[in-house]
Specification:
This protein is α/β, with parallel strands linked by helices and about 210 residues long. The protein has a single domain, classed as 4-Layer Sandwich (Metallo-beta-lactamase, Chain A). The protein has 6 helices and 14 strands. Strand 3, helix 1 and strand 4 form a beta-alpha-beta unit. The radius of gyration is 16 Å and the shape is globular. The N and C termini lie far apart (about 35 Å).
Length: about 210
């Protein structure tokens, strides 16, 4: 199956929002719509994309804050997925950081996922990889057939996510990235929540946090 991948930078701190599109059907998954939900909806509709699901790598405001505006533009119900350990982060403004000088908000998901669970959405097979440390329920979404990984704020290009937010843990994050992500094939393309894309091979060789 052919796919198309589109990236938009949204919000005040430049969060990467991704569209994973089935090129055969135009069925589309949105990953981390952190802001600009109405604008994302307009782009989807202009391109003829059929929105099937929203995936959240974690519950911080800059990754989940645009979900309500995005889904408000659709009459049909679009399911939102997050890891089961992220329920409290999504709900609590102090944990999702929207209460830290921003407008306090609570976010919701419809389906809470387990580590290793495989989703079948928009013609894709997606493996859920729980990578706690940035948040308790942070996770990555791995598309093995396409060799694509959406790593959220767990793994960046030659860096890893911050762990100084509430309930963050450097030891948990390093361990989970090493055990869950670096074992993937080296030619897997990694699309993080901020900054540039990378590959698993590049991170194995050059990431100073994982040596």
């Amino acid at each position: 199956m052919e796919y198309k991948l589109k990236q938009y930078m949204v919000g005040s701190i430049g969060t990467n929002c991704y569209l994973m599109i089935n090129a055969d059907t135009n069925e589309t998954i949105v990953i981390d719509p952190g802001a600009s939900g109405k604008e994302l909806s307009r782009k989807l509709k202009e391109d003829g994309c059929v929105l099937k699901a929203v995936l959240l790598t974690h519950g911080h405001y800059d990754h989940a804050g645009g979900v309500a505006d995005l889904l408000g533009e659709y009459e049909e119900e679009i399911p939102v997925y997050a890891h089961e350990n992220e329920k409290e982060t999504l709900k609590d403004p102090m944990l999702n950081l929207s209460g830290n000088g921003y407008r306090p908000e609570s976010y919701q998901a419809d389906h809470f996922l387990k580590d290793g669970e495989v989703l079948k959405l928009a013609g894709f097979s997606i493996t859920v990889l729980h990578t706690p440390g940035h948040t308790e329920g942070g996770c990555c979404f791995y598309f093995p057939e396409e060799k694509v990984l959406f790593s959220g704020d767990s793994l960046f290009c030659e860096s890893i996510g911050r762990t100084d937010f509430p309930r963050g843990s450097m030891s948990d994050l390093v361990r989970s990235v090493k055990e869950k992500l670096l074992v993937l094939p080296e030619d897997v393309n990694v699309y993080p929540g901020h900054d540039a894309a990378t590959t698993i091979g590049n991170e194995k060789r050059y990431n100073p946090f994982l040596s």
